[in-house]
Write a structure and sequence with these properties.
It is a single chain. The chain has one domain: lambda repressor-like DNA-binding domains (434 Repressor (Amino-terminal Domain)), CATH 1.10.260.40. About 45% of the residues lie in helices and about 15% in strands. The chain has seven helices and four strands, in the order αββαβαααααβ. The strands form two sheets. It has a two-stranded antiparallel sheet. Strands 3-4 form a two-stranded antiparallel sheet. It is globular and about 30 Å long.
Length: about 100
């Protein structure tokens, strides 16, 4: 089975994507759709018990502190690779990291 190539797909789109085959993903919901906007992340809630600052989390994920801040405040959608990195550092899964309201 070939891996999905989702590196440029935002996490919000990923959760609402319909997989047609092992090599393609079709997203039918745009960011303007209220369902997509209802996806929230739990990064700050998971980061604080681990006593990780935004800067420390950013360094472990190889991004800037500003990127982590923007993600926590729903101003930036991480790439799928960054979502997996965040989940790894925060000792959780991507599914648990982002929740649908």
């Amino acid at each position: 089975m070939q891996p999905l190539l989702l590196t440029r797909v935002s996490v919000r789109c990923y959760f609402w994507a319909l997989c047609q085959s092992a090599t393609s993903v079709h997203c039918f919901i745009t960011k303007e759709n209220s369902e997509v906007d209802a996806v929230k992340n739990k990064i700050a809630n998971l980061r604080k018990p681990l006593k990780l600052s935004q800067k420390e989390l950013a360094e472990k994920c190889r991004v800037t502190r500003q990127t982590i801040n923007a993600i926590e405040n729903d101003k930036y959608d991480p790439t799928l690779q960054l979502a997996f990195d965040l989940a790894r550092v925060l000792q959780t899964t991507v599914d648990e990291l982002f929740e649908s309201e």
